[in-house]
Automatic annotation (TrEMBL):
Domain of life: Eukaryota
Pfam families for this protein: Glyoxalase
Name of protein: VOC domain-containing protein
InterPro entries: Glyas_Bleomycin-R_OHBP_Dase (IPR029068), Glyas_Fos-R_dOase_dom (IPR004360), VOC_core (IPR037523)
Domain named VOC: residues: 19-139
Length: 190
């Protein structure tokens, strides 16, 4: 580890990382947790290194791995479902279907809604068997805006889609309304 304070870089490409590989959870019962992640979230068991000398399982789907580490005396984090607590989030394309399936499986969950600049994001939060929180949302509806490229604005000043100020076809390129809101927020001054 370098001790110089100048080693922290503001360069977004400073670390040669590719993507998030996996999330690791300690669980009281590996079989129970495997069943949950397979049946509720559609993960599949994959091979893990045979050199490991501890109970566990690796699962994969949706471009991410879940590594479960067995520990019989693991303390459950289960309590009231709190969307402001630590969680992992998965994007989905059909929130109504997710809602229906969680109800069919008797999975307790809470909902939340985020509204920003004319965009609505629906969220569902629930726990795995050990109390680790999971969110499923349609967060892809909310544009990712780097703070360095947009000034902070009051919510009342956020631009809304207006066909006259920003047509959805510009130089032959077609934009969705969420992209237009993004572009307006970058180029319209309050």
């Amino acid at each position: 580890m370098r001790s110089e304070s100048s080693t922290i870089s503001n360069d977004m490409n400073g670390m040669p990382m590719l993507a998030l590989n996996h999330v690791s959870y300690i669980c009281k019962s590996v079989p129970k947790s495997v069943k949950f992640y397979e049946q509720v979230l559609g993960f599949s068991l994959i091979q893990r290194p045979s050199s490991f000398q501890f109970e566990g399982a690796w699962l994969f789907n949706h471009g991410i791995g879940i590594h479960l580490l067995g520990k019989e005396d693991a303390q459950s984090k289960r309590g009231k479902i709190n969307p402001k607590d630590n969680h992992i989030s998965f994007q989905c394309t059909d929130m109504d279907l997710i809602n229906q399936r969680l109800n069919d499986m008797n999975v307790e969950y809470v909902t939340a809604t985020v509204k920003e600049g004319g965009v609505t994001v629906d969220q569902l939060f629930f726990h795995d068997p050990d109390g680790n929180m999971i969110e499923i949302c349609n967060c892809q509806n909310l544009p990712v805006l780097p703070l360095s490229s947009c000034p902070l604005k009051k919510l009342s000043n956020l631009p809304t889609f207006n066909q006259k100020t920003m047509p959805n076809s510009f130089y032959g390129m077609h934009f969705s309304s969420s992209i237009i809101v993004l572009l307006e927020s970058l180029f319209c001054h309050s």
